[in-house]
Amino acid sequence: MANSELVEIIRAEIGTNGPISFARFMELALYHPDRGYYASGRANIGRRGDFFTNVSVGSVFGKLLAVQFAEIWEKLGRPGDFKIVEQGAHDGVFAADALSALRQAAGGCFAATSYCIVEPFPIWRERQQKNLREFAEKIAWIASLDEIAPFVGIHFSNELFDSLPAHLIVSGGVANGATVWNEKFVGLEHRLSACAPSGVELRCPDALFIFTTANVSHSGLQLDHLGFFPAGFETEVNLAAPKLMSEIAAKLSRGLILAIDYGFPRTEFYSLHRSRGSLQVREKQKKLSSPFQQIGRADISGHVEWTSLAEAAQSSGATPIGFTDQHHFLTGIISKFFPDADFDASEKRSLQTLLHPEMLGRNFQALALGKDFKETLSGFRFARDSAAALGL
What we know:
By secondary structure, the protein is α/β, with parallel strands linked by helices. 31% of the residues lie in helices and 25% in strands.
């Protein structure tokens, strides 16, 4: 069942201020500092968790990314202070896998590497520290990007941007040559109390969350460029994701931003056949029908609109150098660094999950953005032109 304390916190804010944007609801549901799904430590990944991701398949994902990291280090001229910054590190297992593989396969890079994890929540920092004990001298933790100085190296994330709060918008049809956009807000539905005198409506403590529709709430929601959409078309606009990408790019003095997630370039994201948007709510591998179910105990996410991330990085001086699906990205790495590798049975099963088009291979994409770095990476050797793919 939902986290009752968190539900009351959200109800109180709506009761005081009126309906809130879905972005605000999502922020509270996921990131409230005490009760949110992520902040509380409730988030659980893996086959028995709420959702399944690349790290869930085993250590081979970290092994493949480690050699890509080492190639970046080489192409940067082997800097003596090479920083890997990971954001959205969950329990630290990816960091442990990647550092183990670096130590084994690329000793020079491993020696030059310092690993920094951006982690605002103490409960996750404790779990990361436990899983990374053997690399304690290599790792530092910060609560936000504000705490890190400009660095040379890599910013890496796996499924970070999909969980950032998004606004929900709905078309009211086309008028005067433009789509009329409205926004969906979260409000309260108050029911008649069984204890109330006949015909008297009381505000019940168990008031239900409902969607209401009104004019867009945020001046940053610039929607005219999205195109023409019929009445009832629903989608998301994420302002937090490009803002974060711009902040990341501003902190990187030289090197690469590598983001792995699931989503679409803008033209596909806002295509007519995707008329219900991409919002999804998951608990224990099952999709729930509403974000108002299991509040604080279920994950809420949406697909990434990659074009806006690339544009945000460009505004801070980073340019796209690679964009492709995970199948081609990992195949490029394998063909370069493991052409004759004899993967064991467990690794082969893991690779099938990572690469198969009907599993993670096509659902996930990799985006690389370089700053003072324009080299071609092995992971993108089978990719088409990134600017064309992103619609830039």
